[in-house]
Amino acid sequence: MPLDYARRRRNAQSEMERRGIDHLILSPSADLVYLAGYNALNFERPTLLVLPRAGTPFFVVPQLEADKARASSPDLEVRAWSDTDDPWTIVRAGVGAGPRRIAVADVMRASFVLTLQRVLPEASLQPAGALMAHLRRRKEPEEVAALREAARRTDVVFDQLRAEALAGLTEIDVADLIGRHLRAAGLAWKWSYICSVASGEHSASPHHTLSDRVLRPGDAVCVDFGGTYANYPSDLTRTLHIGPPSDEFRRVYDVVRDAQDRAFRAVRAGIAAEEIDRVAREAIASAGYGPFFIHRTGHGLGLEIHEPPYIVGGNGEALSEGMVFSVEPGVYLPGRFGVRIEDTVVVTDRGAERLNGATHELCVAR
Ligand code: ZN
Ligand code: ZN
Ligand code: ZN
To answer: Most buried of the four, 100, 114, 160, 332, by CB within 10 Å?
Structure first.
């Protein structure tokens, strides 16, 4: 079923009504993809969707992109500007002068925001993040289907990876291998996309990315990767071991696996996001590794790989059906090794479903 952008925009308008927002102005971003299906680059030429609380939305786009905008959003009015025009006069004419309350995309360039403020001096600007998060938080069935397919294909890649001979490769080699497998599995992946291969002592750093360190027997190897399917991402972490692991590695691995499982089993509609974090944290703390779990338990996934809801202490927002997020506790022993296990899960009417099915058994690689 095609995504219903017009319905999403109507939902946005009723939410704007509720929040007292007169206009929503989006530059190229996941928010723009969500409300208009238009995936554009955030360049210096303004491309803006202007959505009034009541009335007809319009696109302000550079002439050279007008056809592309019309093709991807045929139901939207396109007001094109040429390189010798001033796009901001189009915006000002469309919004109208006066004390408007305008919400702008969180990722809008600062120079655009400042220009908006200059051309609409009586308007008060605010970030659109909370409004957009509210709209995007609960995924539609089509979105869950895309996220599930992305996750399933990523699981296949992990199975291929754990069968490979990894010793002797660098972290960058392994990332290259993962990237090739992801593309062969029909997912989009590029070097700028998330892919972390943290080997040996590097695995003790949760946001290590890549280096030319050579993997060798005795290493923990934490791989965190994903690609996108129909614009929706996957995000999977598994920690392998090259050659036989030490008793302590096995112990930490079991603690993290148990914490991940307990946290997953706690997921259901109505429970606070921070409660999932608390369950994972308590499992790790009770095994004596509390100080070494140094990040939140998870983040939402949708058109962006990190988006609300955040599964973190202090976030009392209740989970609800259709929310999709990661559950990824970890333990990091500085200078030695780290273990993280990450799955993407969706809140259902019966609890939760893991979108990932890659094994949680400790994988010993060559
Ligand atoms: Zn991260
Ligand atoms: Zn990840
Ligand atoms: Zn993640």
So the answer is: 332
197 Cα: distance to centroid of ligand 2 (angstroms): 11
What does the buried/exposed string (b/e) look like for 80-89 if buried means 16 or more CB atoms within 10 Å of the residue's CB? Answer: bbeeeeebbe
The pair of three-digit structure tokens given for residue 106, joined into one six-digit string: 């969180």
**Final residue before a domain boundary, out of 101, 135, 169:** 135
Counting ligands in written order, the one closest to the CA of 324 is: 3
C-alpha of residue 235 to centroid of ligand 1, in Å: 9
> Considering only CA atoms, which of 235, 175, 236, 183 is closest in space to residue 202?
175
Same domain for 244 and 289, yes or no, is yes
Q: Report the distance separating Cα 109 and Cα 122, nearest Å.
A: 20
Dist. CA 202 → ligand 3 center (Å): 18
Predicted pLDDT at 324: 98
**Which bound ligand lies closest to the C-alpha atom of 328?**
3
Ligand nearest to the CA of 299: 3
Same domain (yes/no): 241, 351: yes
Ligand nearest to the CA of 237: 2
User: Is the predicted pLDDT of residue 297 greater than 70, yes or no?
Assistant: yes
Do 43 and 130 belong to one domain?
yes
Q: Residue 40 sits in a domain of what CATH number?
A: 3.40.350.10
Find the 207 Cα to ligand 1 centroid distance in Å: 6
Instruction: Please name which of 172, 218, 160, 219 lies closest in space to residue 197, comparing C-alpha atoms.
Output: 172
Domain termination site, one of 104, 135, 166: 135
Determine the structural domain holding residue 104 and report its residue range: 5-135
Residue 197 Cα to ligand 1 middle (Å): 13
Model confidence over 81-116: pLDDT tens digits?
A: 999 999 999 999 999 988 999 999 999 999 999 999
Measure 341 CA to ligand 1 centroid, in angstroms: 13
